[in-house]
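Weekly modeling sync, notes
Attendees: S.R. (lead), two postdocs, one rotation student

Agenda item 3: backlog of single-chain predictions. S.R. asked that every request posted to the team notebook include the full sequence so nobody has to chase files. The rotation student volunteered to paste the first one in as an example of the format we agreed on. Action items at the bottom.

Example entry:
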Amino acid sequence: MPAGGDDVRVIHGCMSGTSCDGIDAAAVAIEGHGWSMRAHFLAGASLPYDDAMPGLAARVRAALRQEPTTAGNLAQLGHDLALAHMQVLRELGRTSTAPMAIAMHGQTLYHAPPVSLQLCSPWPVAQAMGVPVPAAWAS
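Predicted structure, as returned to the notebook:
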């Protein structure tokens, strides 16, 4: 466990995988800088997609299979994934220190290195949680 002080940053992070079953979140305290940096697990939370929003898992799987859709449907899916992320982050917040930032990977929809596409709208999460949400969704 970190000693505390100005050198410790608490970050909350979320991850969802190609299993499309839900979101896992972790709170981590990071202390130090450079090669002396150390991370300490503080708390975790998980939320199945369909507990967050009925039918969300099926919609994610359809996008993962690259079924025909519209840009509007993908945008709505990204927004709904953000709403699901907010639910698990609020749960995490009940057992952890407030973060200075939230890292979200987004739901992987396509992965053929070096090309990858993740989907989740960071803006609603940043607005609701009141902290920066650095995100990169495509490569």
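Discussion: group reviewed the output briefly. The chain has a mean pLDDT of 91.
Action items: rotation student to repeat for the remaining queue; S.R. to check formatting next week.
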